[in-house]
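User: Show me an example of a complex going from sequences to structure tokens.

Assistant: Sure. Here are the input components:
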Amino acid sequence: MRISVNDLTSLTRKAIVSFGYTSDEAEIILKVLMFAQLRGNNQGVVKLIGSGIPMREGNGEPVTVKETTVSALIDGNGTHAMLVMDAMTDRAILKAKEHGMAIVGNFNTTESTGALGYYVDKIASEGLIGFAYASAPFMTTAPYGSTEPLFCTNPFAVGIPTSNDPFLLDMSTSEIAYYGLIEAKTAGVNVSEGCGFDASGAPTTDPAQIMSGAIKAFGGHKGSALALMVQLLAGSLVEADSFDNESDNAGNLVMAIDPSILTNKERFENENSEIIERIRSAKRIGSKNEIFVAGERGYRFKDGVLESGEIDIQDNLLSKLKEVAGE
Amino acid sequence: MRISVNDLTSLTRKAIVSFGYTSDEAEIILKVLMFAQLRGNNQGVVKLIGSGIPMREGNGEPVTVKETTVSALIDGNGTHAMLVMDAMTDRAILKAKEHGMAIVGNFNTTESTGALGYYVDKIASEGLIGFAYASAPFMTTAPYGSTEPLFCTNPFAVGIPTSNDPFLLDMSTSEIAYYGLIEAKTAGVNVSEGCGFDASGAPTTDPAQIMSGAIKAFGGHKGSALALMVQLLAGSLVEADSFDNESDNAGNLVMAIDPSILTNKERFENENSEIIERIRSAKRIGSKNEIFVAGERGYRFKDGVLESGEIDIQDNLLSKLKEVAGE
């Protein structure tokens, strides 16, 4: 059904607060979830109907365990990844503005950061180039040549400022995101062919069977190498665990680079817009009526407030969300 | 036929020197070409039989046009990309060792850097994490949804130190590298299906037709977004040109990060080796007998000297190489 962005925002805020978050914390989680929801990304409000948002029992405050002028490593102390990642993003922006570039990572956060695009969009909106990587010890995805789940879906994102909206690349290195499986299962539909294997290693399109088997790494050996890169950058480099379903120690990494340490910022942003415009106007294949350019879908926050309008949402998802929100 | 690494090295050195490079310059180009050749990467000695190595008429010395403690932008002044990129790599290593991280880029180099893996291997061999990106205004590759060549093959590479050989990811964002087309054409064979289009936009496996048409971006919309990312980072950010076959102004970008600004270096390297070992031992699909792990193929330089041994080389390629070398 259709729902106004305002109503969905209120409902989502209510659902988040019901888990015990302060109103400041709830606003951060709300922005991350709505960013994804309004872009048709499967890291949106579906997270509220599973185990993705509730707070971990007995979590502490995030603590900085190592710091230099250009870097920081944070022990998340069981805090939700969205809250830690949002603070890390702000810190990377500050450090990059002062020193030209910065890298900030964490271990020991719970659950996922949601759409990494949110954080690199925040960086790019400050005129900086942003990179983000996330990993978790939860094994869902098989490397190329194997059917054994070892990697998490290991997403990464890149945000680059233009004279209009930032260029945003936000992708899992798995053929489908884990929440894509949850969405398909909730909707009672199969996923596309070639997304994964069942527990015996046979190809299947049933999302539940892929959950107990393995998602395929995207893009053959190249995509699988990217998944391994993320495992090293957002796992090992930030002291998070790898390959251990029993562990809660997930890791994230964010980088920010000020383009003005290399070139003129305005020239850079204008040329980026021209390049994107040229790609968008490329000769189309047959009946395809648009060329995909990362980051152009979706609503945006203006001064921290969502644009208004209406969006589609699954009936099933909406009624479960109302339950969580206590409506 | 089989040739000893020593003989191929001598022949390659001779061919490079025949273009007028000094012996110091020739050693750099030699290492870059042999790194690729000995890994079965198509950025190897095949470059000597085309227009990839000859010097540009009237080129000047590279000049630093902007510099901070963590960055530098270089005007290549028409110097060959391999020479400029090698010097930029050394500079990024020095700056990262001193300041934790660094980014160095150039515009206005000629031809391609060759295998980007060479440069990130050099960075990772110093215990740092390396990223490299290369672009050129020469249009060969169509974005997802189009058959119009706009991107160059836009490769990027990542090198991460381990307690053994570095993890190396080195990939073009096109379905096949341009030198892969040259190799196939030289060998008189077709390429795999799904690599590209002819000039009318119809799918073809003929390498010559793809050269006058377009290579496909790899991996659907995700790969195409990665190609665009490289265009912005190694094109616009470093003041190189985009989308102009008449322009010689190609760009490259290299980054180095010292992992010890976030974590203990030894722990990081050991854990990276363990992660890679776990991936390598993953349950295999059917008859596949190895799991691809980036960077494990090929010979390595020990103290600047190539390991010895023998490798296969196409007869056709070898005889053309001998011609260039004047043998």
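The lines above are the inputs; the final block is the predicted structure for all two components together. The first helix of chain B runs from residue 5 to 17.
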